Amino acid sequence: MVKSMHESAAPNKNTPADMQRKAQQTVRAEAAPPPERRRRAAIFHIGIAVFLVAFGILTWLVRKTAYFSVDLSVTRAIQAWNNPLADAAWRIVSWAGNAPQAAVVPVLLVLLLVLLGMYWEALAATLTAIVVEVSNLLLKVVIHRPRPASDLVHVTGMFKSYSFPSGHVMFYTGFYGFMFFLTYVLLKPSWKRTLLLILFGGAVTLVGASRIYLGAHWASDVLGAYLMGGMELLLFILVYRWGKPRFFLRQPVARETGRPGRADG
């Protein structure tokens, strides 16, 4: 009788360890098998050399001119659809790249990966974010291209840094592109996977037009950022696949079954 009273009085609460274990079990159930993950990852293993050459040519051209005639034409065409609804929509697309959320959102996503037991994914995402951000800052300083001028196009704010390549576009392509890759490769087909793919893929796809509409960048700034961000994305996918079967075979979720000496994970 006493035991029964004590049992009924005990709080029915899950400990943090229980909650983490349940979350990991949920994600484990959603994870695609290793062969399917390897097949999907192989799709991302082309294009690095093409991206590098294209970016090099564009950079050489950009250093010779403040903007191209096509830049002006593209910006004016996009800004011709100027209305309050478009203003709000394009600002929402760029929102995750503005301070302070440009740092807060990636940190939260990385912490979520850690909580779910995806330790290598969290580390790879962190490295991707750092390298993309640092390389963008260095490229801007080296190339020092001016931002679009307000006497040429509509400029919605004060932008203090240089213009080429676009920081928003490069970070979205590198970091959120990597999150898209993880979602595509690791999760089984489901409405949750589809929603995440739309969210990450849509952000990467639309941010370029958003930066042009807001007058923050020229179209060539955006193109350069997609090229450089895409190249870094592919490089970190290769790093991710190289490192996982070597160092993270026994993580709680999305573990690999290949031998540590192989890079096919």
Q: What's the count of strands?
A: 0
What is the helix fraction of residues, given as a range? 55-70%
What number of domains?
Answer: 1
Mean pLDDT: 84
Query: Largest sheet, described in full?
Result: none
Distance between the ends: 56 Å
**Beta-strand percent range:** under 5%
* Assembly of the depicted chains: single chain
- What's the SSE pattern? HHHHHHHHHHH
**Poorly predicted ranges (pLDDT <50, ≥5 residues)?**
259-265
SS element count, helices:
11
What structural class do the secondary elements suggest?
A: mainly alpha
Rounded to an integer in angstroms, the radius of gyration calculated over CA atoms is: 22 Å
Write up this protein:
This protein has one domain (45-245). The chain is 69% helix and 0% strand. The chain contains eleven helices and no strands. The radius of gyration is 22 Å and the shape is globular.
